[in-house]
UniProtKB/TrEMBL annotation:
Lineage of producing organism: Bacteria, Bacillati, Bacillota, Clostridia, Candidatus Pullichristensenella
Domain SHS2 per the UniProt entry, residue ranges: 4-147
SMART domains noted in UniProt: FtsA
GO process terms (BP): cell division
Protein name: SHS2 domain-containing protein
A Pfam entry, by short name: SHS2_FTSA
Source species of the chain: Candidatus Pullichristensenella excrementigallinarum
Length: 350
């Protein structure tokens, strides 16, 4: 997206690589929409339950439809990717995700809608149309990774997922099956690499090697070590850790401060006393001491959740795995009678 004129070629390259891996021609695709092109709308509504009746599937859908009407989702002009409940409450009871069959006089719900930028949708339709490839659906990896990485218990208490990627950072508050808050910060792991590249006067590839080797909480031996990388021309680069630290930690502090401000000023109202914070993405989660450095800045403990995948359980693949999980769920809902094969295929990622 930084070079729109190269977008078509990038899509073609990705398709070609996937076809080689799958050893088959791709004719249909699901498209994951980046966080920059989605926004979250949340609201609440309440309906009356007829006397003597238990809560039905129709009532659950009706109260969620009422939220959509209150938010005027249809009039927004966006593309609704997902409708997800954060909670239901029967009468004055506790929050629940399973109100079906419960007796009561009132059913209330908090519902989240993930809405996509229509221009992104049109761009994708144009690109894949030109390639004669059918788009089966649009999905939000942001929601997928939240549901995949965070347990239902964590989500019941409200959780915050911080996905520090290469170019940006997504921050999502999650409750129940819904994202209740979402924003994108224009900073990520790439900024650390760029500043090292400029500060040390070395190629980006070498700067990335040094970034990955850096330790934020070094022991006595690591504090005196030199950080090394290839210069790309057969040579060798070496820098004292303290020299690298001046550049890297200053940029890291700026990133952490931006995240901390967002959590304090914007995300906090969507979290509770028992809410936990989680870090994923390939930006800093793989750097030794990166999680601890962010936790110290936020003054809150942070965990790195691990996807239940034998082959792709790195934070780098969190968003991709979340998208795959949503795709399988979508296919299962469309073809329930033939879901056995889908579950078997899904198991390959576990």
């Amino acid at each position: 997206w930084n070079t729109p004129d190269q977008l078509l070629q990038a899509v073609c390259n990705s398709l070609s690589a996937a076809e080689i891996e799958a050893n088959s021609k791709i004719r249909e695709v699901y498209v994951g929409i980046p966080g920059e092109y989605v926004h979250i709308c949340t609201g609440e509504a309440e309906i009356e339950v007829p006397e003597g009746e238990e809560i039905s599937e129709e009532m659950i859908n009706r109260v969620q439809d009422m939220v959509a009407d209150k938010l005027n989702i249809a009039g927004m002009g966006g593309y609704v990717l997902h409708r997800s409940p954060a909670w239901f409450v029967v009468d004055e009871g506790k929050k629940t995700m399973t109100p079906l069959g419960v007796h009561g006089a009132k059913l209330a719900a908090a519902v989240s809608f993930v809405v996509a930028d229509p221009q992104f949708i049109e761009d994708m339709k144009e690109i894949f149309g030109a390639l004669n490839i059918t788009i089966l659906g649009f999905l939000a990896p942001t929601l997928g990774e939240s549901l995949l990485l965070l347990s239902l218990d964590d989500r019941d208490h409200g959780a915050l997922l911080i996905d520090v990627g290469y170019l940006n950072t997504e921050i999502s508050a999650v409750e129940g099956d819904a994202i209740t808050f979402h924003t994108v910060l224009p900073m990520g792991g790439c900024q650390l690499t760029v500043d090292l590249c400029e500060g040390l006067g070395i190629p980006m590839r070498a700067a990335e090697q040094i970034k990955r080797a850096y330790v934020f909480n070094p022991d006595e031996f690591e504090a005196d070590q030199y950080l090394e990388a290839d210069d790309g021309e057969g040579g060798h680069l070496s820098f004292p850790r303290e020299y690298v630290a001046e550049i890297l930690e200053d940029t890291m502090d700026s990133l952490c401060e931006e995240i901390a401000l967002c959590v304090k000023n914007d995300a906090a109202p969507h979290l509770g006393a028992r809410s936990q914070l989680f870090l994923t993405g390939g930006g800093i989660a793989l750097m030794r001491g990166g999680r601890e450095h962010l936790a110290a800045c936020l003054n809150r403990p942070i965990k790195v959740p691990v996807a239940k995948s034998a082959k792709m359980n790195s934070p780098v693949f969190a968003s991709a795995l979340g998208l795959v999980d949503l795709i399988f769920d979508s296919i299962e809902q469309q073809t329930p009678k033939d879901s056995g094969g889908i579950k078997k295929l899904k198991g390959l990622f576990k």
